[in-house]
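INFO worker-7 received task bundle
INFO bundle size: 2
INFO processing item 0
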Amino acid sequence: MSSTSYDAIVIGGGPAGLAGALWLARYRHSVHLFDAGDPRNAPTTGVHGYLGLQDIPPMELRRIGRAQARDAGAKTEEAVVESLDGEIGDFCIRLADGRAFGAKRVLFATGLRDIIPEIPGLTDFYGTSIWHCPDCDGPSIVGKKVGVIGWSRPIVAYCMQMLTWTDKLTILTHGHAAGMPARSVAALDRFAIPVRTQVVRGIDGQDGQVEGVTFIDGSHEEFDAIFFHIASGPGCSIPAALGCRADEEGILEIDAEFETTVPGIFAAGDITPGSKSALRAAADGARAAIGIYRSLLPKERKV
């Protein structure tokens, strides 16, 4: 058991966590970042729309971020955080390997996890021509024919966003009842978006490029790309166990300083309200670090 203690511990090593660690170190705080090493965007070929870095592979962005944070004075380590207890100014973080660390503040940047449809062939194209995030990959499908896997009202709202890039959309419910209210059905009719309810037997293509799907009845339809939107949830259950308030999807409630409803516990990135882009996550990680810095200012410096 280690008695090492830090001003702040960051849990999660994506853009939000790395930016948080970088900026905390710039403020001369002792900071240690732990990352499980299994990012949500690992399958994708590039992080799009990140200012100054053109379509950089996600693991390369992380490598650069770790180096930059370490150069500023932060420690980074691949490790799984198993539990956290304590209170503001005196938290104890325990790792899966049995080590323990103390921290005055904690920043969660643990992101979300997507439910991926269990369809034969899907993982062969995930990240190259099958995606889950329109904000990230919508610009890649301008004018193309796209299948959208999902059902019920949320998938209609998803398609309304997808219309930004293409009007050649087809909803694939993969055997699920469409379950759409009248208003959603009217929106689909307005934009001539068909719904196919057959089970998808498989996805075909070559060299990472989707070419179409085959349905359980033997019919086939060609597509240039596929998106899916089933559900997602928090990448880490610890904030909920601590009592951090969240919405029905597990998105944490934060204040203007990025502090959750549990004093001393901060959050940034996809686990907080807002768009789920890497650029926004990095910006929010820096803002959370500033919030932590302000919270650690001694009373005599607050005027």
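INFO item 0 finished
INFO processing item 1
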Amino acid sequence: MPSAANKYGAENVERMAKGRAPQRYNADKGGIESMELSHEPIPFRDGGKDFIPRWPQDHAAVDPFRRPGY
């Protein structure tokens, strides 16, 4: 399994140590985006507590109520 620094980059490891989400540049958006927590298999709105970290467009692909806005 790759280390967090290899997977997300050293700057993101610092962000995550402070409780903040990792970020990346998204060319489709034309800017920086933060990773989100996708509550699966039960959506948060239905009481779900389990989650999977996903980038906004990946989150929107599995949740019809999530729209990344670009």
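INFO item 1 finished
INFO post-check item 1: Strands lie at 23-26, 31-34, 36-39, 51-54.
INFO post-check item 1: The radius of gyration is 13 Å.
INFO worker-7 idle
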